[in-house]
Amino acid sequence: MRTTPEETQRNKELIIETAIKVFSEKGFDATNMQDIADAAGISRGPLYYHFDCKLTLFNESVKEYAAKELQAYRRIFNQDKNILELIREDLYYCSRNIRIDIETPTLVVPEKEELKEAFQTIESYRKSVYDIKVASVKNAIEKGELKSDTDPNHIVNLMFVFYEGLFTMTQKINYITTVEEANKSIESLLTLIKLQYCI
What is the SS3 assignment for 39? Predict the structure, then answer.
């Protein structure tokens, strides 16, 4: 029985979705095509029908991951809410991969020659996310939610530094070990932003 075009497309989507999870858990170097086939519950035939090698699959997985993440950030910052609510939602979303109550894959792309295409995809995605956040802060200044002399880049830099620090505290140093501690840290940053920048 021949596979329909719809089934072929669904198989491809399943492979990419599974690959994102496996690459997130094991990293590029430690993952092989059999790992992905096993996790997807398929043979290697359909895998190689769509992707000729692990690198091709990784590049496509990174593109899909970046596109979905970018869509999520656009959704957050396109809402008609006060800037503090948008920042809160952003920080909770950013920290989802370090929260023990949520299982979310996070693709990490090492900066090395073999993965140049994937690394550039991630860098472009990060720049787009940064620009979305800066535009939102600028809009909040225009609306009078933040002081007129607020530096939009500074606010967004704080958000990025906070997340990276939170990630380090939970993953590498293991000082923040509960969801409540992570939530408290987010709320503390919001309080500081409110005190210093809100009207």
Answer: helix
pLDDT above 80 (res 12): yes
Residues 6+ away with beta carbon under 8 Å from 56: none
Place of tokens 């990419």: 16
Q: Are the beta carbons of 69 and 129 closer than 8 angstroms? A: yes
| Contact call for residues 133 and 153 (beta carbons, < 8 A) | no
The closest alpha carbon to 151, from 163, 133, 127, 164, belongs to 133
How far from 112 is each of 94, 115, 118, 133, CA to CA, in Å? Answer: 25, 6, 10, 28
90-100 tens-digit pLDDT: 998 887 766 54
Helix, strand, or coil (residue 198):
strand
Distance between CA atoms of residues 193 and 96, nearest Å: 21
6-9-15-17 Cα dihedral, nearest 10 degrees? -90
3-state secondary structure of 84: helix
Per-residue pLDDT reduced to its tens digit, 24-43 = 989 999 999 999 999 999 99
pTM: 0.87
In 3-state terms the chain splits into helix, strand, coil percentages (rounded to 5) of 75, 0, 25
The C-alpha angle 72, 78, 81, rounded to 5 degrees, equals 115
